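User: Let's play a game. I give you a shape written as tokens, and you guess the letters that built it. Ready? Here's round one.
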């Protein structure tokens, strides 16, 4: 899991599959054409570093150098990062416009973002509240409670592995083939967090130490030394400390 050599490969963003066709029939616009012969299938986030850099949380999961940072598998990266972002932006420091926040978070999977409507916001907010309880349990080293909560989520939104043909290659999806947006992301986030816990990474959920912040992050440093959600918070704390020293 931690070696790039054995890292499971995330399904690519290119998809031209019968699943897309099925989705196109049954769910209207579930598949979205993005190019001449390229069809994107909902629920297959791409590992796009540019997107993750726009978000506050763990770009490091995707671009860490081997030996310096812990690498999770790409599927877990996405579910985990989306879970953290949902909690940060819908619960802890709620964005003024939650639907904009959701669109930005789900931009990792353009077909999902394309399907997003304002009607989904309350359901995503409810999911974010549940995920917050899980992440709080992990952050406070209460793995037992986290596991109980995750089992509840997993039983309500079971992961459902299935293969879909994309560009002539079979790729593995972990969520039900035919499901609505929120249940699909519930399954993806729950499975990612369950893998995270089961792989012994639970203690890597941290909360920003900057006064008034408290946003959550995934600490991928080798020795778990991350303290802040962002360089902005880190700089703020450093500047305040420097001012204090100058005064004393
Ligand atoms: Zn912060």
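Assistant: Ready! My guess for every position:
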């Amino acid at each position: 899991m931690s070696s790039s050599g054995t890292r499971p490969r995330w399904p690519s963003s290119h998809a031209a599959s019968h699943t897309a066709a099925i989705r196109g029939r049954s769910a209207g616009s579930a598949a979205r054409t993005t190019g001449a012969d390229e069809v994107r299938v909902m629920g297959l986030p791409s590992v796009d570093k540019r997107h993750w850099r726009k978000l506050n949380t763990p770009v490091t999961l995707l671009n860490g150098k081997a030996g310096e940072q812990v690498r999770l598998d790409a599927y877990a990266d996405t579910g985990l990062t989306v879970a953290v972002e949902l909690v940060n932006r819908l619960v802890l420091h709620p964005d003024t416009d939650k639907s904009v926040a959701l669109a930005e978070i789900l931009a990792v999977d353009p077909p999902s973002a394309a399907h997003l409507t304002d009607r989904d916001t309350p359901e995503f907010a409810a999911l974010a509240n549940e995920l917050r309880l899980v992440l709080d349990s992990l952050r406070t080293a209460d793995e037992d409670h986290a596991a109980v909560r995750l089992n509840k989520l997993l039983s309500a939104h079971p992961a459902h592995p299935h293969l879909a043909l994309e560009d002539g290659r079979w790729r593995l999806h972990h969520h039900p083939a035919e499901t609505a947006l929120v249940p699909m992301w519930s399954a993806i986030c729950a499975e990612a967090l369950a893998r995270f816990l089961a792989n012994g990474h639970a203690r890597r959920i941290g909360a920003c130490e900057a006064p008034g912040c408290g946003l959550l992050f995934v600490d991928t440093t080798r020795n778990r030394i991350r303290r802040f959600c962002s360089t902005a918070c880190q700089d703020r704390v450093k500047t305040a400390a420097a001012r204090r020293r100058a005064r004393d």
